[in-house]
Amino acid sequence: MSGTIEAVVFDVGRVLVQWDMRRLFAQLIDDADRLDWFMTHVVTEEWHFLHDAGRDLGELVAERKTQFPGNDHLIDAYATRFLETIPGNVPGSHEIVRELAGRDVPLFAITNFASPFWREYRESEPLFDLFGDIVVSGDEKIAKPDARIFEIASRRFGHEPGAMIFIDDNAANIEAADRLGWNVHHFTDAPRLREDLTRRGLL
Q1: What is each CA distance from 180 to 22, 109, 163, 188, 192, in whole angstroms?
Q2: What GO terms are given for molecular function (predicted)?
Q3: What is the per-residue pLDDT across 121-175, written as a single tens digit (0 to 9) for each?
């Protein structure tokens, strides 16, 4: 898809901010093998995705404690210390957002982010004041790559898919948006994104 791009739509995790759940649990589990087991079986990204998609945090935590007894304090840390899984910003990405805003390019986001974690994180990050709207999977109870979240976003953002470029690090999400007629950029790093946006006349 190509043509005049009116708006830029960002993913958040691993595009604008770093995210690594292992960072939190490495502080709590000293043994490397035990840490590997825990991240592979207990607090996994697949399990976390259920929360992103709208499952209640309390229910998920209680269910997981039953499935993996003896790990209560670690599973509780997932619920109470999530911001510690965000070590910082993705280098160069925030600068791109600010430059786009300075050129009056409309900015939006679609993020797989659990509602309570998003509210906690959003309060700490003023960059998102530059965004016109942000579709959060936990609020919609629909997560990428489900086509419905892209349809919600298009309606809310007020632009046709072909008039927007969607930026995400996840190939499945990029493929879903592409099938729906969005312009897409599969994010790997900020320099390549800058090059693409410059080529498209947005920077």
Answers
A1: 34, 17, 12, 22, 23
A2: hydrolase activity
A3: 999 999 999 999 999 999 999 999 999 999 999 999 999 999 999 999 999 999 9
Q: For residue 184, which phi and psi values (nearest 5 degrees)?
A: -135, 155
- What pairs with residue 8 in β-bridges? 107, 165
**Secondary structure of 111-127 in HEC code, one letter for each residue:** ECCCHHHHHHHHHHCHH
| Cis status, amide bond into 145, omega within 30 of 0 | yes
Q: What is the residue type of 91?
A: P
For the chain, the first-to-last Cα distance in angstroms comes to 19
Closest by CA position to 108, among listed 6, 2, 201, 176: 6
* Residue 176 and residue 159 in contact, taking contact as beta carbons nearer than 8 Å: no
Residue 177, amino acid: A
How far apart CA 153 and CA 149 sit, in angstroms, is 6
Read off the DSSP letter of residue 165. Answer: E
